[in-house]
Amino acid sequence: MKSQFLIDPEITYLNHGSFGACPKPIFEDYQKWQRELESEPVQFITKKSAQYLKESKMALANFVGCDVSDFFFVPNPTVAINTIMRSLKLNPGDEILTTNHEYGAMDRTWHFYCKQSGAKYIRQNIALPVTTKEQIIAAFWEGYNVNTKVVFLNQISSATALIFPVKEICEKAKQLGLITIIDGAHVPGHIDLNISDLKADFYTGTSHKWMLTPKGSSFLYVSKDFQETIDPLVVSWGYESDTPGESRFLDYHEHQGTRDISAFLTIPAAVKFLNENDWKEKSRVCKQMILDNYEKFCNLLHSKTLCPVTSEFLGQMCSIPITTNNPSALKELLFHRYKIEIPVMQLNGQFYIRISLHFYNTQEDLDILYEALIDIIATTEYITV
């Protein structure tokens, strides 16, 4: 599979989770759309783009399990959460309940909102290691009180790579009358997803990570109950449109000024590539490699796994706790000396080396990392064991 990707063959690439990696056939489809746009910009933008978007949205709707009229494309989940944030009408003292495992950009978005609104952002502690799904759920709801109005939760944590029980939390949140917002950046194409079944009020995910599209292709799903309440982040031609479509919600959020939507239009090509290459089986192989190697890496670094080593908590990623006095230098050393692209993550004062695998990875890649870590432990002071 590696020959079908554009990744530098000299690099051992163990960081798919950060920005994804695009295979050649999907990237060629991306360039096809860009060339069509540039060959006749007026016709593409004013006449053809609406139909092209609809076709791409239909492919994505089938893939993630929701209605085509209930979401729109955005460049990334940060834009999606900012769109939601700008439309929330919380009062001073109202609380947004989340965990202390969320993505840093999301934390910053909510901190900004709370400074403006007087609401409170409650980062409920989910202690590590986690042992059961029930433990996570119980710990999360310890943060609930009468002031809680919103639940915000990542489905897969970026730093710890843990899968969170969002379905169960959404179910209880609905019973309590809370707004539910799910950050599923790492989910589409990674683990099973049926957005309609989750019953979240808002859900954002990417296609440029595990679905393998070019960068800048994500989406924001909004349940029908909230579509009339969410304002466009960018007010443009769709607002009070002279030629309104069937959905004011989509008019407001899809009809903008000049922009390149080519990355959005590659969804059909991406789904085709995944299906033609038996992606579910290849994903299973990647997940099994994570399960087979996680404890081995933790033992090498004298640390412990963050969860039971099962598919309930782990997909194609795992994070290994590490003791280091210079995480930035360690990351640069791994890249420049050993030609390994892998992140050293930080969360709540703890550092992690996060392994994330996709179709182009093999056991040999993990063995290269293992030997590099042995050498770093023996020859530098960057890792303490």
Features:
seven-stranded mixed beta sheet, 385 residues, three-stranded antiparallel beta sheet, alpha/beta
Please explain how this structure is put together.
This protein has 385 residues and is an alpha/beta fold. Helices cover 41% and strands 15% of the residues. The protein is built from 13 helices and twelve strands. The chain has helices spanning 16-19, 24-39, 41-64, 77-87, 104-117, 133-141, 166-175, 195-198, 248-254, 267-276, 279-300, 327-336, 363-379; strands spanning 12-13, 71-74, 95-99, 120-124, 148-154, 179-184, 202-206, 218-222, 317-322, 340-341, 344-347, 350-356. Strands 2-8-7-6-5-3-4 form a seven-stranded mixed β-sheet, with helices on both faces. Strands 9-12-11 form a three-stranded antiparallel β-sheet. A two-stranded parallel ribbon has the order 1-10. Helix 11 (279-300) runs parallel beside helix 13 (363-379). The longest helix is centred in the first third of the chain and has 24 residues, at 41-64. The chain is globular and about 70 Å long. The two termini are 35 Å apart. The relative contact order is 0.15.
What are the SSEs and their pairings?
Layout: E1 12-13, H1 16-19, H2 24-39, H3 41-64, E2 71-74, H4 77-87, E3 95-99, H5 104-117, E4 120-124, H6 133-141, E5 148-154, H7 166-175, E6 179-184, H8 195-198, E7 202-206, E8 218-222, H9 248-254, H10 267-276, H11 279-300, E9 317-322, H12 327-336, E10 340-341, E11 344-347, E12 350-356, H13 363-379
Parallel strand pairs: 1-10, 3-4, 3-5, 5-6, 6-7
Antiparallel strand pairs: 2-8, 7-8, 9-12, 11-12
